């Protein structure tokens, strides 16, 4: 397993806990605790911080994108795992440098996290939402 994938797992765990407590816990404290527990030797803390900061700085816009791409699933009824995987995936898909994280890598990583941590249909759900957004992005750039 690559260090970036392990780092994304830690980011997901951090966002999950932060979201579970309605943003009342300090995300950096959660991230540091998770790195100590799950990745003390990983040298990707800045990568992790950039994803979390990016998700939180674009939180409302990312949530709106999820809502418009999956109107049949209200955000508050989407599982904590699925919505945080989507937030991470959308941040990397939309806001990250394509050279650092190519769109297909962002989508594939999110699908893998959804399959690992989510329910039976999480991978398909994440794939559908991110695929829809990616298709719209490509159409806008043509």
Please describe what this structure looks like:
The protein is built from seven helices and no strands. With 142 residues, it is an all-alpha fold. Helix 2 packs antiparallel against helix 3 (45-57), helix 5 runs antiparallel to helix 6 and helix 6 packs antiparallel against helix 7. The longest helix is centred in the C-terminal third of the chain and has 19 residues, at 122-140. The protein starts with a helix and ends with a helix. The mean pLDDT is 95.
Low-confidence stretches: none
Structural class: mainly alpha
Individual helix count: 7
**Fraction of helical residues:** over 70%
Q: Report the major sheet.
A: none
Mean pLDDT: 95
Oligomer state equals single chain
Radius of gyration: 14 Å
Shape, please?
A: globular
Distance between the termini: 35 Å
Order of helices and strands: HHHHHHH
Give a quick set of tags describing it.
single chain, 142 residues, mainly alpha
Q: Quick recap of the structure?
A:
The chain contains seven helices and no strands. By secondary structure, it is an all-alpha fold.
Give the SSE layout:
Elements: H1 3-20, H2 27-38, H3 45-57, H4 59-69, H5 80-95, H6 103-117, H7 122-140
Helix pairs in contact: 1-2, 1-3, 1-5, 2-3, 3-5, 4-5, 5-6, 5-7, 6-7
